[in-house]
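Thread title: Can someone regenerate the structure for this chain?

I was given the following input by a collaborator and told the matching structure tokens would be attached. They weren't. Posting the sequence so someone can regenerate them.
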Amino acid sequence: MPKYQFRIEISYHFNEHGEDRRHWFMFRDDCHRRVPVEMDWVEGLNTIGMFIENPGTFHKGDTCETDCIVIAPELFKPVIKAGTKGGLWNKVYFADVKVLKIYEEGWSGNL
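Best answer:
Regenerated them for you:
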């Protein structure tokens, strides 16, 4: 079981997806996804691992909460806090994110 570093709320909008792109996002049975994210005060796009309690498919207007871990904690730990905002990216931005809480124990030890 990974040590989560923070929890986010995801608000799906798919505003930048054209008609030729799918307008949904799915967590399969393993309840895990890795997606690039841009966050306030963190340089560039960085991949985060997102873990959700139950599988599900989300459409425009849906929201969900996920626990997260990052590949580059040195970029996130100094600046991430509750309220930090960002966006999920897949060639274009398709969802807004907001950090809900930080899990301090998730930043120590091996991820």
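The chain has a mean pLDDT of 91.
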